Amino acid sequence: YPGNPVVTHKGRDPKVLWYGPGRHWALAVFDQQDKSRGISFYTSTNLKDWQFGSRIDGFYECPEIFELAVDGDRNNRKWVLHAADGDYVIGRFDGKTFTPESAKLRWSCGNCFYASQTFNGLPPQDGRRLQIAWGRIPTPGMPFNQCMLFPCELTLRTTEEGIRMFAAPVREIATLHEQTQRWTDEVLTADRNPLAGLRGDLFHIQGQFEIGPADTLQLVIRGVPITYDATKQELSCQGKTAPLKPVDGTIRLEVLVDRTSLEIFGNRGRVYMPIGVIPADDDQSLRLLAEGGSARIHSLEVHQLRSAWE
To answer: For a 10 Å CB count at each end of the chain, is N or C smaller?
Structure first.
């Protein structure tokens, strides 16, 4: 196109979306001005002629902006703005200007999340907003560099701290389920491992647990521990931590086990902790134990997965 560049700025990573109420295109782009890093917004009706709308400071690379219903109420919708690290702000967007209604909020609590983007334009009867992030997980010996994390469905929900974004693995993970083991209403101790007979390297694990009076609950996947500290009300893995308070006396954990990652979701996605880790090839074991007292399995499902690649 002889009119290129249609937008001149000192940055990269344009995100273009159709803003229906204004009947125009909106563009969010990383824009660096001297030492100031932020996102600039432009508008256009033809994708060729663009007008500057506004700028917001404090964001770096790979902007993303989208609208979500709060608690599933389509009459109460908020916009989410974030950049490469995923830390997000909730607010309003009029097609030209983003107006924050929250402080910047922590998103991923893991060690490998970066530069996510979302699907839009899904069928109206679906209405999901699906996110795929870059998993910065070097994989020695492979003919590629790093990977993409598993697709997640994003929602906004009201919590005791205000409105927060939640993440959950897309339901299509069920198409990869093979053998499934289930447990209900069982006591956990330090010397009894209900998962002792399971071996493998691909799993989808979903559990609800009552922790007390145990001090900790630990799920060890191929030698890599995921630990819940009941005293601190804190979830941790590979040096990363996140607060996780019990709900009605229980916590929920969901884990996707891949060959180079553990993607951990706490309390239906209130905590999202993708962890890049390459377990030892000679350890395909699973362990679940309580320490400092007993805990209880309300429900637990362990699905062995087939590969997504035929």
So the answer is: C
Average pLDDT over the chain, rounded to whole? 95
Q: Please give the model's pTM, rounded to 2 decimal places.
A: 0.95
Three-class SS state of 126: coil
Tell me the per-residue pLDDT of 152-170, one tens digit each, with 9 for 90 and over.
999 999 999 999 999 999 9
Beta-bridge mates of residue 187: 296
Q: What is the DSSP letter of 266?
A: E
Q: Which pLDDT score is estimated for 169?
A: 97
Beta carbons of 129 and 153 less than 8 angstroms apart: yes
Report which of 124, 130, 114, 110 is spatially closest to residue 235, judged by C-alpha positions.
110
| Token pair 């970066």: residue | 114
Which distant-in-sequence residues (6+ apart) come within 8 Å of 258 by Cβ?
150, 202
The predicted-structure confidence for 265-308, as pLDDT tens digits, reads as follows: 999 999 999 999 999 889 999 999 999 999 999 999 999 999 99
pLDDT of 103-118, one tens digit each?
A: 999 999 999 999 999 9
Residue type, 239: G
The C-alpha atoms of residue 243 and residue 264 are separated, in whole angstroms, by 13
CB 39 within 8 A of CB 30: yes
Dihedral sign, Cα of residue 108, residue 176, residue 130, residue 136: positive
Radius of gyration of the CA atoms of the chain, in A:
22
d(C-alpha 221, C-alpha 23), whole Å: 50
DSSP tally for the chain: helices H, then strands E: 0, 24
The residues, any chain, with a CB within 8 Å of residue 54's CB and separated by 6 or more, are 40, 41, 96, 97, 98
Any bridge partners for residue 101, and if so which? none
